Amino acid sequence: MMERRKGERLFFPALYRKYITFKVREISGDFVDAELFNFSPQGIRIRSRYELHFDSTIECLVSAPESFTNEILFKGRIKYCIQEEPMGNYLIGAKIIEPGDQTAFEVFLRIHGFVKEKIDHIP
Question: What global pTM score does this model have?
Answer without folding.
Answer: 0.76
